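re the bet — no i am not wrong, look at it urself. input seq straight from the record:
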Amino acid sequence: MTSLTLEGLREDHSGHGGKVCVYDELSAFISGQNEYKQKGSDRESWLCLHDGQPARIVRAGRSVTLSGARVSIFGGIQPQVWRRCFSSDGDLFLVDGTAFRFLPVYEGSAFYPLTAESWSDENREAWESLLKTAMRWADSRHEAKERKVLCLSQDAQEVFLNWRNELMQVKGDLPGPVRGFIPKLIGSCLRLAGVLYLMDVFSRDQEPGIILNVGDIEKGIRVSEFFLGHIVQAMELIASDNAPEPFEITDQVRHLAKTLEAMRSDVDSGWLAVGYILDRFNEGCQKEQTIRTPKAMGSLLRGCGLTIAGGVHDANGRRAVKCLVWDKKTNEFIETSLQSLQSLRTGVNSGSQDADIENLKSAKSAWDSQGQEDLQTLQTLKNQSLQAETGVNSGFADNADITDVISNEDEKQPPEVIEI
């Protein structure tokens, strides 16, 4: 998709329900707000549609109400464009909650070997069958004018409430621009759990039930914490002109970090020969992680933000070769990657995600000197608890859309409802 307007959405809307819009360039959606008038309410309408609420569109003396169109927007955006889009107009997109309705994934660069491997016919057929089953089921619900309601079991509700409460406790330790995401992320956790449950059921060509169990809500929690890590990095990019480019810490990257840590004593005049690193790397790695050439190893090192010296040098008994510069970046890379490995082990051993949350708490230190600590949305400041929107607190509350999901007044209440 290259263009999306409220007018176009109204013309295309069939009343079926949810709608997915995929943008090649997400910046086009941001810059296209109020395209047909200088001072308008397009953004407020999009916020309503995202939350499943009706939106009133006023154009050229006439008005149209668009309802039943819960819109989800996916798109790609370059890091610098992301910063420009969401930090313009006095941080308007932060203040009104637009940014908080996105789940950003900011991975930076990573090296993946190109192979001729493709989907097998079996995998392709399984995926296509899942989609067909899901669409047939959705069509049948629409024709019958029935909504699907999912409930949390008592145990699943307890797991969710404990996670929600822990997340809200560490909210104050997170950077200011990140805090506004937390209420939305809690709601997304429930929706993600529901979506993953339905995908699992449809993959087995079965009819979905009405109960989400502990395993289902834990899947939603894991995905939500994945996004929370990316949110911290994406918002740091907005707040800082010198934010480091992230890299994805894959199993291959972790193995590289362990290899370099073991090679500290082999540093030769501040250098390590790339070919020498390659040999040591391949000695202890799994077959699928093997790097075949020094050039490919150099690409992996650069992708991790490490410094390759210009020209060629003599190091590790090799003459006129490309070399890694052992500098501050190298030490930081090893520390970050091995901390990630330790966090994974701790999380597995404890059977919880506490370690990941503790890592996020430490992210505050990178923001302390940037003057961003007090940046929150007006809605977040007014709505620190999960309370349903009423006539007293009505408005664009950032956490209002999840309050029909679960109550925090009494954990002993019967399972509440999430609507898919």
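see?? The first helix runs from residue 6 to 12. told u. also The chain has a mean pLDDT of 74. so pay up
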